[in-house]
Amino acid sequence: MGTFIQLVVDGLATGSVYAALALAIVLVNQATGLINFAQGGMAVFSAYIAYAFVRVGLPLIVAILLALVISFFIGALVERFLVRRFERGDPDTAVVVTIGLLTLVTGIAAVLWSYNNLPFPSLFPLTSVDILGAVVSVRSLATTVTILVIMGVLQVLFLRTKLGLALRAVADNPGSAAFSGLPVGRLLMIGWGLAAALGCIAGVLVAPQLTLTPGMLDTALVYALAAVILGGLSSPIGCVVAASAIGVLENLVAVYVPLVGHDLKIAVPFALIFIILILRPQGLFGRKVVVRV
Question: Beta partners for 135?
């Protein structure tokens, strides 16, 4: 039982990393209708910014807050001067643009800080606690709780605030939103800025566990995209639940299914995607879109 609990807790901690990126992807999609494949690279770049502030002697919490602000403005500027040219065009072109942005951001981070593994200080203590025979890291628990709080804030943002409703209106129909008097361009910038700030949180939470490198979140981005598909593009709660399920199932399958093991456990989210796309294409918590013709 202790091994089972350990696997579940570790899976939830890993899933919280996937969930942070998935939430940022959902935020961009809700604000602009696009899927940002550069989200992982932008999150890593934000973590490097926080690292640079720590290196000059600033306290970690201050460095992270400054990185959050800078990340917000970087995300807003990226939307204004790059992505906006492709947002309402061919979706395939927009996808290529975000993939190119991922390559660009990763390259800039490598040029500025190199590909070497850099130690990043942890925001939470490195102590452990015993839960029903399982040794659980306080950092893992704190990371999971942080992601749950962010999920709740995003859910309230989209469903209970004027800003969230305006962001959804712009994503659904920018033309009608503009005729209604909404500042479409400004809202698009805010959506990308918020997603970049959320990515910054993901970066600084993951960096102490993996060490800071330009490609630190490449694999996590794949799992985050899987969580978005499973949970539904319109549901922050669904993405967090799906990301947590992926993390837990991946750990359990690796240990209890010898045929899969640790080498093939990456196939778990793709098997789930295949099943969900057949049974419920809009995702477990997504809304089914009905088009009147």
Answer: 130
Largest Cα–Cα separation, the chain: 61
pLDDT tens track for 187-240: 889 988 988 998 898 889 888 887 899 988 888 888 888 888 888 887 788 888
Q: Say which residues have a Cβ less than 8 Å from residue 46's Cβ, sequence separation at least 6.
A: 67, 68, 70, 71, 74, 196, 197, 199, 200, 203, 204
Virtual CA dihedral for 114, 118, 124, 125, nearest 10 degrees?
180
Q: Which two tokens stand for residue 1?
A: 């039982």
Q: What is the pLDDT of residues 127-149, one digit of tens each?
A: 887 776 677 778 878 888 888 88
- The model's pTM is 0.86
Pair of tokens at residue 283: 């995702």
Q: What is the 3-state secondary structure (H, E, C) of the chain?
A: CHHHHHHHHHHHHHHHHHHHHHHHHHHHHHHHCCCCCCHHHHHHHHHHHHHHHHHCCCCHHHHHHHHHHHHHHHHHHHHHHCHHHCCCCCHHHHHHHHHHHHHHHHHHHHHHHCCCCECCCCCCCCCEEEECCEEEEHHHHHHHHHHHHHHHHHHHHHHHCHHHHHHHHHHHCHHHHHHCCCCHHHHHHHHHHHHHHHHHHHHHHHHHHHCECCCCCHHHHHHHHHHHHHHCCCCHHHHHHHHHHHHHHHHHHHHHCCCCCCCCCCHHHHHHHHHHHHHCCCCCCCCCCCCCC
